[in-house]
Amino acid sequence: MPKITFIEEDGNKKIVDAPLGLSVMEISQKHDLDIEASCGGCLSCATCHVIVDPKDFDKLEEIEEGEEDMLDMAFGLTKTSRLSCQLIMTEELDGLVIALPGAPIDW
Ligand code: FES
Predict the structure, then answer these.
(1) Residues 6+ apart with CB under 8 A from 57
(2) What is the DSSP secondary-structure string of 5-20?
(3) What CATH architecture applies to the domain 3-99?
(4) Best substitution site from 22, 25, 36 to test ligand 1's pocket, by max atoms within 8 Å of Cβ?
(5) Fewer CB near the last or first residue (10 Å), C or N of the chain?
(6) Is the pTM of this model over 0.85?
(7) Where are the domains of the chain?
(8) Under a CB-based contact definition with an 8 Å cutoff, are residues 103 and 50 in contact?
């Protein structure tokens, strides 16, 4: 089973199972991580914003215009920010490292 490491706001690292085909947002919700995702994944809220480890960023699907527009409204935007509801888990993403906005990151 592929894994994702989430870095939480307090710096805690949580390694979780990441079933193929689920979005990073759905996976985070299964493990009670603090990602609001208020629109439920329909690309109309930006509250599912996460920061992707730069080493993993190029493995992600290209960002589409709708995500880019919505992402502009996210708080604490970075160069490797994405909306987690748009990131679908694949074999290639095994080992993905994701920080929640506000988490201390040292990459
Ligand atoms: S959950 Fe609303 S845009 Fe991702």
Answers:
(1) 80
(2) EEEPTTS-EEEEE--T
(3) Roll (3.10)
(4) 25
(5) N
(6) yes
(7) 3-99
(8) no
35 lines ligand 1 (CB under 6 A): no
Q: Is 37 in the pocket of ligand 1 (CB under 6 A)?
A: yes
Which residue, chain included where needed, has tokens 């480890």? 53
**pLDDT tens for each residue of 20-72:** 999 999 999 999 999 999 999 999 999 999 999 999 999 999 999 999 999 99
Would you say the C-alpha torsion 66, 70, 72, 74 has a positive or negative sign?
A: negative
86: CA distance to ligand 1 center in Å? 8
Tokens at residue 107, please? Answer: 């990459």
